[in-house]
Amino acid sequence: MQASQPDEGVRADAVRRAVEAVWRIESGRLIAGLARVTRDLGLAEELAQDALVTALELWPRTGIPPNPAGWLATTAKNRAIDVHRRTAVHDRKLEIIGRETGDHHDPFAAEVDDALDDHIGDDLLRLIFTACHPALPMDSRVALTLRCLGGLSTDEIARAFLIPQASAAQRIVRAKRTLTAKNVAFELPGPQELAERLASVLEVVFLIFNEGYSATAGADWMRPALCEEALRLGRILAGLVPAEPEVHGLVALMEIQASRSVARIGPDGAAVLLPDQDRRLWDRLLIRRGLEALARAESVARTGAGADRALIGPYTLQAAIAACHAQAATVEDTDWAGIANLYGLLGRLWASPVVELNRAVAVGMSAGPAAGLAIVDALVEAGALTDYPQLPAVRGDLLAKLGRAEQARAEFERAAELSRNAQESAIFRGRAGSL
Amino acid sequence: MRYITLLKSAQPTEGPPPGLLEGIMELGAQATAAGALLDTAGLAPSASGARVQLSAGNLSVMDGPFTEAKEYISYALYQVHSKEEAVEWASRFMKLHQELWPGWEGEVEIRKVFGPEDFAPPT
Lengths: 435, 123
Known about the structure:
Number of domains of chain B: 1
Order of helices and strands of chain A: HHHHHHHHHHHHHHHHHHHH
Oligomer: heterodimer
CATH topology of chain B: Alpha-Beta Plaits
Number of helices of chain A: 20
Mean pLDDT of chain B: 92
Largest sheet of chain B: 4 strands, antiparallel
CATH class of chain B: Alpha Beta
Largest interface: A-B, 32 and 27 residues
Structural class of chain B: alpha+beta
Shape of chain A: elongated
Number of helices of chain B: 3
Order of helices and strands of chain B: EHEEEEHEH
Number of strands of chain A: 0
Strand content of chain B: 35-45%
Low-confidence stretches of chain A: 100-104
Largest sheet of chain A: none
Number of strands of chain B: 6
Shape of chain B: flat
Protein backbone atom coordinates (compact mmCIF):
# COMPACT_ATOMS: atom_id res chain seq x y z
CA MET A 1 0.00 0.00 0.00
CA GLN A 2 1.63 3.22 -1.11
CA ALA A 3 1.17 6.46 0.74
CA SER A 4 0.06 8.77 -2.03
CA GLN A 5 -0.02 11.73 0.31
CA PRO A 6 2.16 12.46 3.32
CA ASP A 7 -0.92 12.18 5.63
CA GLU A 8 -1.54 8.58 4.67
CA GLY A 9 1.88 7.53 5.89
CA VAL A 10 1.31 9.40 9.14
CA ARG A 11 -2.13 7.88 9.54
CA ALA A 12 -0.87 4.36 8.84
CA ASP A 13 1.85 4.88 11.42
CA ALA A 14 -0.72 6.06 13.98
CA VAL A 15 -2.84 2.97 13.31
CA ARG A 16 0.21 0.73 13.66
CA ARG A 17 1.03 2.24 17.05
CA ALA A 18 -2.58 1.87 18.17
CA VAL A 19 -2.54 -1.81 17.13
CA GLU A 20 0.68 -2.35 19.05
CA ALA A 21 -0.88 -0.74 22.13
CA VAL A 22 -3.84 -3.10 22.03
CA TRP A 23 -1.40 -5.94 21.46
CA ARG A 24 0.60 -5.11 24.55
CA ILE A 25 -2.54 -5.11 26.65
CA GLU A 26 -4.14 -8.23 25.18
CA SER A 27 -1.43 -10.55 23.84
CA GLY A 28 -0.81 -12.42 27.09
CA ARG A 29 -4.47 -13.25 27.61
CA LEU A 30 -4.88 -14.11 23.95
CA ILE A 31 -1.92 -16.49 23.82
CA ALA A 32 -2.88 -18.01 27.16
CA GLY A 33 -6.41 -18.83 26.02
CA LEU A 34 -5.21 -20.24 22.71
CA ALA A 35 -2.53 -22.33 24.40
CA ARG A 36 -5.15 -23.89 26.60
CA VAL A 37 -7.00 -25.37 23.62
CA THR A 38 -4.07 -26.06 21.31
CA ARG A 39 -2.01 -27.31 24.26
CA ASP A 40 0.98 -25.92 22.39
CA LEU A 41 2.46 -22.62 23.46
CA GLY A 42 4.47 -22.24 20.26
CA LEU A 43 1.41 -22.72 18.07
CA ALA A 44 -0.67 -20.40 20.25
CA GLU A 45 1.92 -17.65 19.94
CA GLU A 46 2.00 -18.06 16.16
CA LEU A 47 -1.79 -17.94 15.87
CA ALA A 48 -1.88 -14.80 17.96
CA GLN A 49 0.91 -13.27 15.85
CA ASP A 50 -1.10 -14.08 12.70
CA ALA A 51 -4.01 -12.10 14.13
CA LEU A 52 -1.66 -9.21 14.85
CA VAL A 53 -0.26 -9.26 11.32
CA THR A 54 -3.79 -9.32 9.90
CA ALA A 55 -4.76 -6.35 12.06
CA LEU A 56 -1.71 -4.43 10.90
CA GLU A 57 -2.68 -5.13 7.28
CA LEU A 58 -6.41 -4.42 7.51
CA TRP A 59 -6.93 -1.70 10.08
CA PRO A 60 -5.08 1.07 8.24
CA ARG A 61 -7.71 0.60 5.53
CA THR A 62 -10.81 -0.27 7.54
CA GLY A 63 -10.04 1.84 10.59
CA ILE A 64 -9.61 0.52 14.12
CA PRO A 65 -12.63 -1.65 15.02
CA PRO A 66 -14.79 -0.54 17.96
CA ASN A 67 -13.65 -3.53 20.03
CA PRO A 68 -10.04 -4.13 18.98
CA ALA A 69 -9.35 -6.75 21.68
CA GLY A 70 -12.44 -8.74 20.65
CA TRP A 71 -11.45 -8.48 16.98
CA LEU A 72 -8.00 -9.94 17.68
CA ALA A 73 -9.49 -12.74 19.77
CA THR A 74 -12.05 -13.64 17.09
CA THR A 75 -9.47 -13.59 14.33
CA ALA A 76 -7.05 -15.76 16.30
CA LYS A 77 -9.86 -18.11 17.26
CA ASN A 78 -10.91 -18.55 13.63
CA ARG A 79 -7.32 -19.28 12.65
CA ALA A 80 -7.11 -21.81 15.47
CA ILE A 81 -10.23 -23.55 14.21
CA ASP A 82 -8.93 -23.56 10.62
CA VAL A 83 -5.63 -25.06 11.69
CA HIS A 84 -7.38 -27.61 13.85
CA ARG A 85 -9.75 -28.62 11.04
CA ARG A 86 -6.90 -28.99 8.59
CA THR A 87 -4.97 -31.27 10.90
CA ALA A 88 -8.11 -33.06 12.06
CA VAL A 89 -9.27 -33.82 8.57
CA HIS A 90 -6.97 -36.82 8.52
CA ASP A 91 -8.25 -38.04 11.85
CA ARG A 92 -11.00 -40.57 11.21
CA LYS A 93 -12.38 -40.35 14.69
CA LEU A 94 -13.00 -36.62 14.38
CA GLU A 95 -14.61 -37.14 10.95
CA ILE A 96 -17.07 -39.48 12.57
CA ILE A 97 -17.81 -36.99 15.32
CA GLY A 98 -18.27 -34.32 12.69
CA ARG A 99 -20.86 -36.44 10.87
CA GLU A 100 -22.71 -37.25 14.07
CA THR A 101 -22.88 -33.80 15.54
CA GLY A 102 -23.31 -31.85 12.33
CA ASP A 103 -21.58 -28.72 11.29
CA HIS A 104 -22.94 -26.21 13.77
CA HIS A 105 -21.77 -27.97 16.86
CA ASP A 106 -18.00 -27.85 16.58
CA PRO A 107 -16.71 -28.95 19.95
CA PHE A 108 -13.33 -27.42 19.26
CA ALA A 109 -14.84 -24.03 18.40
CA ALA A 110 -16.89 -24.11 21.57
CA GLU A 111 -13.80 -24.98 23.56
CA VAL A 112 -11.92 -22.06 22.02
CA ASP A 113 -14.76 -19.69 22.87
CA ASP A 114 -14.85 -21.00 26.37
CA ALA A 115 -11.10 -20.67 26.83
CA LEU A 116 -11.02 -17.10 25.62
CA ASP A 117 -13.74 -15.96 28.00
CA ASP A 118 -13.41 -17.94 31.19
CA HIS A 119 -10.44 -19.39 33.06
CA ILE A 120 -8.29 -16.47 31.93
CA GLY A 121 -6.55 -16.27 35.29
CA ASP A 122 -5.60 -19.94 35.24
CA ASP A 123 -4.54 -19.77 31.62
CA LEU A 124 -2.30 -16.76 32.19
CA LEU A 125 -0.74 -18.60 35.09
CA ARG A 126 -0.14 -21.66 32.91
CA LEU A 127 1.43 -19.41 30.32
CA ILE A 128 3.77 -17.82 32.86
CA PHE A 129 4.81 -21.16 34.34
CA THR A 130 5.38 -22.69 30.90
CA ALA A 131 7.36 -19.75 29.52
CA CYS A 132 9.56 -19.85 32.65
CA HIS A 133 9.97 -23.63 32.63
CA PRO A 134 13.29 -24.80 34.10
CA ALA A 135 13.81 -27.06 31.05
CA LEU A 136 14.60 -23.90 29.08
CA PRO A 137 17.90 -22.04 29.40
CA MET A 138 17.48 -18.73 31.22
CA ASP A 139 17.94 -16.62 28.07
CA SER A 140 15.08 -18.47 26.44
CA ARG A 141 12.81 -18.15 29.46
CA VAL A 142 13.40 -14.40 29.48
CA ALA A 143 12.83 -14.00 25.73
CA LEU A 144 9.70 -16.18 25.71
CA THR A 145 8.24 -14.41 28.74
CA LEU A 146 8.80 -10.96 27.27
CA ARG A 147 7.38 -12.14 23.96
CA CYS A 148 4.26 -13.94 25.18
CA LEU A 149 3.44 -11.97 28.32
CA GLY A 150 5.03 -8.62 27.61
CA GLY A 151 3.89 -8.47 24.01
CA LEU A 152 7.33 -7.21 23.04
CA SER A 153 8.45 -7.51 19.43
CA THR A 154 11.64 -9.35 18.51
CA ASP A 155 13.25 -6.00 17.78
CA GLU A 156 12.34 -4.65 21.21
CA ILE A 157 13.72 -7.75 22.92
CA ALA A 158 16.93 -7.46 20.89
CA ARG A 159 17.40 -3.80 21.81
CA ALA A 160 16.64 -4.49 25.46
CA PHE A 161 19.43 -7.08 25.71
CA LEU A 162 21.88 -5.52 23.29
CA ILE A 163 21.80 -8.52 20.96
CA PRO A 164 21.22 -8.70 17.21
CA GLN A 165 17.61 -9.15 16.18
CA ALA A 166 18.41 -12.54 14.64
CA SER A 167 19.73 -13.79 17.99
CA ALA A 168 16.59 -12.66 19.77
CA ALA A 169 14.47 -14.45 17.17
CA GLN A 170 16.60 -17.57 17.57
CA ARG A 171 16.11 -17.62 21.33
CA ILE A 172 12.36 -17.63 20.89
CA VAL A 173 12.41 -20.29 18.16
CA ARG A 174 14.72 -22.51 20.21
CA ALA A 175 12.57 -22.03 23.29
CA LYS A 176 9.46 -23.25 21.47
CA ARG A 177 11.36 -26.20 20.00
CA THR A 178 12.71 -27.20 23.40
CA LEU A 179 9.24 -27.11 24.93
CA THR A 180 8.00 -29.44 22.20
CA ALA A 181 11.06 -31.69 22.26
CA LYS A 182 10.87 -32.11 26.02
CA ASN A 183 7.09 -32.63 25.94
CA VAL A 184 6.49 -29.80 28.35
CA ALA A 185 2.75 -29.82 28.99
CA PHE A 186 0.81 -26.57 29.13
CA GLU A 187 -0.23 -27.20 32.71
CA LEU A 188 -0.07 -25.69 36.16
CA PRO A 189 2.60 -27.33 38.31
CA GLY A 190 1.29 -29.71 40.96
CA PRO A 191 1.57 -28.83 44.65
CA GLN A 192 4.86 -30.76 45.00
CA GLU A 193 6.64 -28.72 42.37
CA LEU A 194 4.88 -25.41 42.91
CA ALA A 195 7.54 -23.89 45.14
CA GLU A 196 10.37 -24.71 42.74
CA ARG A 197 8.46 -23.66 39.64
CA LEU A 198 7.36 -20.41 41.25
CA ALA A 199 10.97 -19.73 42.24
CA SER A 200 11.90 -20.09 38.57
CA VAL A 201 9.23 -17.56 37.54
CA LEU A 202 10.34 -15.06 40.16
CA GLU A 203 13.94 -15.53 39.09
CA VAL A 204 13.05 -14.67 35.48
CA VAL A 205 11.10 -11.57 36.52
CA PHE A 206 13.90 -10.37 38.80
CA LEU A 207 16.49 -10.97 36.11
CA ILE A 208 14.51 -8.80 33.71
CA PHE A 209 14.29 -6.12 36.40
CA ASN A 210 18.01 -6.19 37.12
CA GLU A 211 18.87 -6.03 33.44
CA GLY A 212 16.86 -2.83 33.26
CA TYR A 213 18.16 -1.48 36.54
CA SER A 214 21.77 -1.94 35.48
CA ALA A 215 21.29 -0.07 32.21
CA THR A 216 23.52 2.94 32.04
CA ALA A 217 22.03 6.40 31.84
CA GLY A 218 21.37 7.54 28.29
CA ALA A 219 20.96 3.97 27.01
CA ASP A 220 18.24 3.00 24.54
CA TRP A 221 14.99 3.45 26.46
CA MET A 222 14.12 -0.22 25.87
CA ARG A 223 16.72 -1.14 28.48
CA PRO A 224 15.54 0.79 31.54
CA ALA A 225 12.00 0.08 30.33
CA LEU A 226 12.72 -3.53 31.32
CA CYS A 227 12.24 -2.44 34.94
CA GLU A 228 8.71 -1.41 34.08
CA GLU A 229 8.10 -4.70 32.25
CA ALA A 230 9.31 -6.67 35.25
CA LEU A 231 7.14 -4.60 37.56
CA ARG A 232 4.16 -5.17 35.33
CA LEU A 233 4.80 -8.94 35.29
CA GLY A 234 5.25 -8.97 39.05
CA ARG A 235 1.98 -7.11 39.59
CA ILE A 236 0.17 -9.49 37.26
CA LEU A 237 1.58 -12.42 39.26
CA ALA A 238 0.52 -10.82 42.53
CA GLY A 239 -3.02 -10.76 41.21
CA LEU A 240 -2.87 -14.38 40.02
CA VAL A 241 -1.18 -16.00 43.03
CA PRO A 242 -2.06 -13.69 45.91
CA ALA A 243 -1.47 -16.44 48.48
CA GLU A 244 2.27 -16.59 47.80
CA PRO A 245 4.19 -14.20 50.06
CA GLU A 246 7.36 -14.17 47.95
CA VAL A 247 5.46 -12.84 44.94
CA HIS A 248 4.42 -9.79 46.96
CA GLY A 249 7.95 -9.64 48.38
CA LEU A 250 9.47 -9.46 44.92
CA VAL A 251 6.99 -6.80 43.81
CA ALA A 252 7.78 -4.80 46.94
CA LEU A 253 11.52 -5.06 46.28
CA MET A 254 11.12 -3.93 42.67
CA GLU A 255 8.75 -1.05 43.46
CA ILE A 256 11.11 0.32 46.10
CA GLN A 257 14.24 -0.09 43.99
CA ALA A 258 12.50 1.54 41.04
CA SER A 259 11.58 4.46 43.29
CA ARG A 260 15.23 5.52 43.24
CA SER A 261 15.63 5.58 39.43
CA VAL A 262 15.90 9.34 39.12
CA ALA A 263 18.01 9.82 42.26
CA ARG A 264 20.53 7.25 41.03
CA ILE A 265 21.58 9.31 38.04
CA GLY A 266 24.08 12.08 38.69
CA PRO A 267 24.28 15.24 36.55
CA ASP A 268 27.03 13.73 34.40
CA GLY A 269 25.25 10.41 34.09
CA ALA A 270 27.43 8.78 36.76
CA ALA A 271 25.80 6.46 39.28
CA VAL A 272 24.96 8.01 42.66
CA LEU A 273 25.23 5.56 45.54
CA LEU A 274 22.41 5.18 48.04
CA PRO A 275 23.97 7.17 50.91
CA ASP A 276 24.60 10.10 48.54
CA GLN A 277 21.23 10.21 46.80
CA ASP A 278 18.94 13.22 47.08
CA ARG A 279 16.01 11.51 48.78
CA ARG A 280 13.60 14.23 47.65
CA LEU A 281 13.94 12.64 44.21
CA TRP A 282 12.71 9.26 45.40
CA ASP A 283 9.33 8.43 43.91
CA ARG A 284 6.90 8.46 46.80
CA LEU A 285 4.15 6.67 44.88
CA LEU A 286 6.41 3.69 44.20
CA ILE A 287 7.59 3.67 47.81
CA ARG A 288 4.00 3.65 49.00
CA ARG A 289 3.15 0.81 46.63
CA GLY A 290 6.29 -1.08 47.70
CA LEU A 291 5.45 -0.74 51.38
CA GLU A 292 1.92 -1.93 50.71
CA ALA A 293 3.21 -4.96 48.83
CA LEU A 294 5.61 -5.71 51.68
CA ALA A 295 2.81 -5.49 54.23
CA ARG A 296 0.81 -7.84 52.07
CA ALA A 297 3.72 -10.31 51.88
CA GLU A 298 4.06 -10.29 55.66
CA SER A 299 0.33 -10.62 56.25
CA VAL A 300 -0.04 -13.49 53.79
CA ALA A 301 2.97 -15.25 55.32
CA ARG A 302 1.44 -14.91 58.80
CA THR A 303 -2.05 -16.07 57.94
CA GLY A 304 -1.31 -18.45 55.09
CA ALA A 305 -1.16 -22.21 55.13
CA GLY A 306 1.91 -24.17 54.00
CA ALA A 307 3.44 -24.47 57.45
CA ASP A 308 6.31 -26.59 56.20
CA ARG A 309 7.56 -24.03 53.73
CA ALA A 310 9.77 -21.07 54.67
CA LEU A 311 7.19 -18.30 54.56
CA ILE A 312 9.29 -15.17 54.80
CA GLY A 313 11.64 -15.69 51.92
CA PRO A 314 14.66 -13.92 50.46
CA TYR A 315 12.70 -11.48 48.27
CA THR A 316 10.52 -10.39 51.18
CA LEU A 317 13.60 -9.93 53.38
CA GLN A 318 15.41 -7.91 50.73
CA ALA A 319 12.26 -5.83 50.32
CA ALA A 320 12.16 -5.25 54.09
CA ILE A 321 15.76 -4.01 53.93
CA ALA A 322 14.90 -1.72 51.03
CA ALA A 323 11.90 -0.49 53.03
CA CYS A 324 14.15 0.49 55.94
CA HIS A 325 16.07 2.77 53.59
CA ALA A 326 12.92 4.02 51.90
CA GLN A 327 11.44 5.10 55.22
CA ALA A 328 14.54 7.00 56.36
CA ALA A 329 14.40 10.70 55.57
CA THR A 330 18.20 10.91 55.79
CA VAL A 331 21.06 8.43 55.97
CA GLU A 332 21.39 9.23 59.68
CA ASP A 333 17.73 8.34 60.32
CA THR A 334 18.22 4.85 58.90
CA ASP A 335 17.32 1.92 61.13
CA TRP A 336 20.70 0.22 60.77
CA ALA A 337 20.12 -2.19 63.63
CA GLY A 338 16.94 -3.35 61.92
CA ILE A 339 18.79 -3.76 58.64
CA ALA A 340 21.59 -5.71 60.34
CA ASN A 341 18.98 -7.99 61.83
CA LEU A 342 17.32 -8.54 58.47
CA TYR A 343 20.63 -9.39 56.81
CA GLY A 344 21.15 -11.89 59.61
CA LEU A 345 17.81 -13.53 58.80
CA LEU A 346 18.60 -13.42 55.09
CA GLY A 347 21.95 -15.06 55.72
CA ARG A 348 20.26 -17.92 57.49
CA LEU A 349 18.01 -18.58 54.49
CA TRP A 350 20.66 -17.94 51.88
CA ALA A 351 24.22 -18.47 53.12
CA SER A 352 26.13 -15.96 51.07
CA PRO A 353 29.29 -14.00 51.85
CA VAL A 354 27.82 -10.99 50.03
CA VAL A 355 24.89 -11.01 52.45
CA GLU A 356 27.33 -11.26 55.34
CA LEU A 357 29.33 -8.33 53.93
CA ASN A 358 26.17 -6.23 53.76
CA ARG A 359 25.44 -7.24 57.34
CA ALA A 360 28.90 -5.99 58.28
CA VAL A 361 28.10 -2.57 56.78
CA ALA A 362 24.84 -2.36 58.72
CA VAL A 363 26.47 -3.54 61.97
CA GLY A 364 29.24 -0.99 61.42
CA MET A 365 26.60 1.75 61.23
CA SER A 366 24.56 0.58 64.21
CA ALA A 367 27.17 -0.86 66.61
CA GLY A 368 30.26 1.01 65.48
CA PRO A 369 33.02 0.37 62.92
CA ALA A 370 34.96 -2.06 65.13
CA ALA A 371 31.99 -4.42 65.29
CA GLY A 372 31.55 -4.21 61.52
CA LEU A 373 35.26 -4.78 60.93
CA ALA A 374 35.17 -7.97 62.99
CA ILE A 375 32.62 -9.45 60.59
CA VAL A 376 34.60 -8.38 57.50
CA ASP A 377 37.80 -9.82 58.96
CA ALA A 378 36.04 -13.13 59.50
CA LEU A 379 35.16 -13.16 55.80
CA VAL A 380 38.76 -12.40 54.86
CA GLU A 381 39.92 -15.20 57.19
CA ALA A 382 37.58 -17.60 55.47
CA GLY A 383 39.04 -16.62 52.10
CA ALA A 384 35.69 -15.40 50.80
CA LEU A 385 35.10 -12.89 48.00
CA THR A 386 38.74 -12.61 46.98
CA ASP A 387 37.93 -10.88 43.69
CA TYR A 388 34.98 -8.84 44.87
CA PRO A 389 35.87 -5.12 45.00
CA GLN A 390 33.20 -4.35 47.58
CA LEU A 391 35.05 -6.39 50.19
CA PRO A 392 38.17 -4.19 50.37
CA ALA A 393 35.96 -1.12 49.83
CA VAL A 394 33.87 -1.91 52.90
CA ARG A 395 36.99 -2.81 54.91
CA GLY A 396 38.60 0.45 53.81
CA ASP A 397 35.57 2.46 54.88
CA LEU A 398 35.51 0.86 58.34
CA LEU A 399 39.29 1.30 58.80
CA ALA A 400 38.99 4.96 57.83
CA LYS A 401 36.30 5.47 60.48
CA LEU A 402 38.64 3.86 63.03
CA GLY A 403 41.35 6.36 62.11
CA ARG A 404 43.60 3.74 60.44
CA ALA A 405 44.14 5.88 57.36
CA GLU A 406 47.20 4.09 55.96
CA GLN A 407 45.50 0.69 55.93
CA ALA A 408 42.26 2.23 54.65
CA ARG A 409 44.04 3.78 51.68
CA ALA A 410 45.62 0.43 50.76
CA GLU A 411 42.18 -1.22 50.81
CA PHE A 412 40.61 1.42 48.56
CA GLU A 413 43.49 1.11 46.12
CA ARG A 414 42.94 -2.64 46.04
CA ALA A 415 39.21 -2.09 45.48
CA ALA A 416 39.95 0.27 42.58
CA GLU A 417 42.18 -2.40 40.98
CA LEU A 418 39.61 -5.15 41.36
CA SER A 419 36.73 -3.10 40.03
CA ARG A 420 35.85 -3.63 36.37
CA ASN A 421 33.65 -0.58 36.27
CA ALA A 422 35.41 2.67 35.37
CA GLN A 423 33.06 4.88 37.39
CA GLU A 424 33.30 2.66 40.44
CA SER A 425 37.12 2.55 40.22
CA ALA A 426 37.21 6.31 40.08
CA ILE A 427 35.09 6.53 43.23
CA PHE A 428 37.45 4.14 45.08
CA ARG A 429 40.57 5.99 43.87
CA GLY A 430 38.98 9.22 45.06
CA ARG A 431 38.50 7.79 48.52
CA ALA A 432 42.05 6.46 48.60
CA GLY A 433 43.34 9.88 47.61
CA SER A 434 41.39 11.68 50.32
CA LEU A 435 43.00 9.69 53.15
CA MET B 1 6.50 5.60 31.43
CA ARG B 2 3.51 7.15 33.14
CA TYR B 3 0.48 8.96 31.86
CA ILE B 4 -2.15 10.69 33.91
CA THR B 5 -5.68 10.77 32.57
CA LEU B 6 -8.01 13.55 33.72
CA LEU B 7 -11.72 13.18 33.16
CA LYS B 8 -13.62 16.39 32.56
CA SER B 9 -17.32 16.91 32.03
CA ALA B 10 -20.20 19.12 32.96
CA GLN B 11 -21.22 18.24 36.50
CA PRO B 12 -24.11 15.80 35.88
CA THR B 13 -27.51 16.76 37.24
CA GLU B 14 -28.45 13.16 37.96
CA GLY B 15 -26.40 10.20 39.03
CA PRO B 16 -24.91 7.72 36.59
CA PRO B 17 -27.12 4.81 35.57
CA PRO B 18 -26.74 1.54 37.46
CA GLY B 19 -24.14 -0.67 35.86
CA LEU B 20 -21.83 2.18 34.85
CA LEU B 21 -20.08 2.38 38.21
CA GLU B 22 -19.88 -1.39 38.29
CA GLY B 23 -18.39 -1.34 34.80
CA ILE B 24 -15.87 1.33 35.77
CA MET B 25 -14.77 -0.64 38.80
CA GLU B 26 -14.45 -3.79 36.72
CA LEU B 27 -12.32 -1.96 34.16
CA GLY B 28 -10.18 -0.56 36.97
CA ALA B 29 -9.71 -4.06 38.37
CA GLN B 30 -8.65 -5.29 34.93
CA ALA B 31 -6.15 -2.47 34.48
CA THR B 32 -4.77 -3.14 37.97
CA ALA B 33 -4.51 -6.88 37.34
CA ALA B 34 -2.68 -6.07 34.12
CA GLY B 35 -0.13 -4.11 36.15
CA ALA B 36 -0.97 -0.88 34.33
CA LEU B 37 -3.13 1.13 36.73
CA LEU B 38 -1.08 2.70 39.52
CA ASP B 39 -3.55 5.04 41.16
CA THR B 40 -7.03 6.42 40.63
CA ALA B 41 -9.60 8.48 42.50
CA GLY B 42 -12.77 10.47 42.02
CA LEU B 43 -12.80 14.19 42.71
CA ALA B 44 -15.56 15.84 44.70
CA PRO B 45 -17.32 18.71 42.89
CA SER B 46 -15.50 22.05 42.92
CA ALA B 47 -18.11 23.40 45.32
CA SER B 48 -16.04 21.83 48.11
CA GLY B 49 -12.76 23.11 46.69
CA ALA B 50 -10.86 26.34 46.28
CA ARG B 51 -8.35 28.10 44.07
CA VAL B 52 -5.20 29.99 44.97
CA GLN B 53 -4.17 32.36 42.20
CA LEU B 54 -1.09 34.48 41.64
CA SER B 55 -1.70 37.29 39.20
CA ALA B 56 -0.10 40.72 38.71
CA GLY B 57 2.03 39.94 41.74
CA ASN B 58 -1.01 39.36 43.94
CA LEU B 59 -2.18 36.20 45.66
CA SER B 60 -5.89 35.57 45.95
CA VAL B 61 -8.01 32.70 47.21
CA MET B 62 -11.38 31.82 45.72
CA ASP B 63 -13.76 29.19 47.06
CA GLY B 64 -15.56 26.88 44.69
CA PRO B 65 -17.79 26.32 42.83
CA PHE B 66 -16.15 27.77 39.74
CA THR B 67 -18.08 29.11 36.84
CA GLU B 68 -16.54 27.00 34.05
CA ALA B 69 -18.97 24.63 32.36
CA LYS B 70 -16.68 21.61 32.83
CA GLU B 71 -15.19 20.18 35.97
CA TYR B 72 -12.54 17.61 36.76
CA ILE B 73 -14.33 14.44 37.75
CA SER B 74 -11.56 11.89 38.33
CA TYR B 75 -7.98 10.95 37.52
CA ALA B 76 -6.13 7.74 36.79
CA LEU B 77 -2.39 7.17 36.66
CA TYR B 78 -1.14 4.49 34.28
CA GLN B 79 2.22 2.86 33.76
CA VAL B 80 2.42 1.98 30.07
CA HIS B 81 4.92 1.60 27.28
CA SER B 82 3.45 4.25 24.99
CA LYS B 83 0.95 7.08 24.78
CA GLU B 84 -1.25 4.82 22.62
CA GLU B 85 -1.64 2.36 25.50
CA ALA B 86 -2.89 5.13 27.75
CA VAL B 87 -5.24 6.17 24.96
CA GLU B 88 -6.53 2.60 24.69
CA TRP B 89 -7.32 2.39 28.43
CA ALA B 90 -8.98 5.82 28.36
CA SER B 91 -10.97 4.81 25.27
CA ARG B 92 -12.28 1.71 27.01
CA PHE B 93 -13.31 3.91 29.92
CA MET B 94 -15.17 6.27 27.60
CA LYS B 95 -16.77 3.41 25.66
CA LEU B 96 -18.38 2.30 28.89
CA HIS B 97 -19.99 5.73 29.14
CA GLN B 98 -20.97 5.64 25.48
CA GLU B 99 -22.65 2.29 26.02
CA LEU B 100 -24.21 2.78 29.43
CA TRP B 101 -24.91 6.52 29.73
CA PRO B 102 -26.39 7.73 26.44
CA GLY B 103 -26.34 11.49 26.11
CA TRP B 104 -23.46 11.95 28.53
CA GLU B 105 -20.58 13.96 27.13
CA GLY B 106 -17.09 14.54 28.43
CA GLU B 107 -13.43 14.24 27.66
CA VAL B 108 -10.36 12.58 29.07
CA GLU B 109 -7.18 14.56 28.81
CA ILE B 110 -4.10 12.34 28.67
CA ARG B 111 -0.78 13.79 29.79
CA LYS B 112 2.64 12.22 30.12
CA VAL B 113 4.15 12.41 33.59
CA PHE B 114 7.85 13.28 33.68
CA GLY B 115 9.84 10.22 34.66
CA PRO B 116 13.40 8.88 34.82
CA GLU B 117 13.43 8.52 31.02
CA ASP B 118 13.20 12.31 30.78
CA PHE B 119 16.09 12.92 33.19
CA ALA B 120 18.72 10.68 31.67
CA PRO B 121 21.50 12.82 30.26
CA PRO B 122 22.16 12.37 26.53
CA THR B 123 24.70 9.65 25.57
